[in-house]
Every structure is written in structure tokens, then in C-alpha cells.
């Protein structure tokens, strides 16, 4: 399974989250996951809320279209993006390897 896979209703991303980073960014591959740095601390779901908001902005979708399927409490997450309107360059590069 790769870091980014295409499914019928959107994309599934396997992420490795780096909280408390200096800025929000999609860093690139980290093993077989996509590393995403976010500024929020991993406290009381703040990082998940921030991640959802950041990914929604990157893929130009509503926050409700970003679903954390696995790993809500850990750094390793599986996130589904429903019907993405835009795909960030770092992610697009990974979808073409399939």
C-alpha cells in the first residue's frame, strides 16, 4: 500500500504527522507514508482539527470531506479526502507512481 491511493470517491492518504512544527507543510515521503508538518500541538484533538482544516484547504474541499479513518490518537493516520477539487503537487507526484 502506498502513501497515496485513489479510491472510488476520492483519495486515501497514509500520513505521518509532525506536530508543533514551525509551519504547516506537506514535507514528502517518510517511509511508505506522507509526512505532514503542522503547527498545532498534539493536545485535546487540536492537531487533528488543525490537520483537517489544513488538508481541506490544500485539496479545496469542505472540512467535512476530510475524514480521519484511522489513527486519531497517534502520529500515523489514514485520512480520506472525498472528491478533491485540487491536488497539491507533492501528493500528485505520488499518485502517478501507481
From TrEMBL:
**Species assigned in the record:** Enterobacter soli
- One Pfam family of this chain: DUF167
Q: Which InterPro entries match?
A: DUF167, YggU-like_sf
Per its UniProt record, what SUPFAM superfamilies does this chain match? YggU-like (SSF69786)
Under the cellular component aspect of Gene Ontology, which terms does the record hold? Answer: cytoplasm
Similarity remark: Belongs to the UPF0235 family.
- The protein depicted here goes by the name UPF0235 protein RBJ67_12855
Where does the record place a coiled coil?
A: none
HAMAP family on file: UPF0235 (MF_00634)
Amino acid at each position: 500500500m502506498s502513501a497515496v491511493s485513489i479510491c472510488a470517491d476520492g483519495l486515501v492518504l497514509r500520513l505521518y504527522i509532525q506536530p508543533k512544527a514551525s509551519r504547516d507543510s506537506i514535507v514528502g515521503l517518510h517511509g511508505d507514508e506522507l509526512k505532514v508538518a503542522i503547527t498545532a500541538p498534539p493536545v485535546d484533538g487540536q492537531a487533528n482539527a488543525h490537520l483537517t482544516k489544513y488538508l481541506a484547504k490544500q485539496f479545496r474541499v469542505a472540512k467535512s470531506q476530510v475524514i480521519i479513518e484511522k489513527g486519531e490518537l497517534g502520529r500515523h493516520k489514514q485520512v480520506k479526502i472525498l472528491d478533491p477539487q485540487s491536488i497539491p503537487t507533492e501528493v500528485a507526484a505520488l499518485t502517478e507512481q501507481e
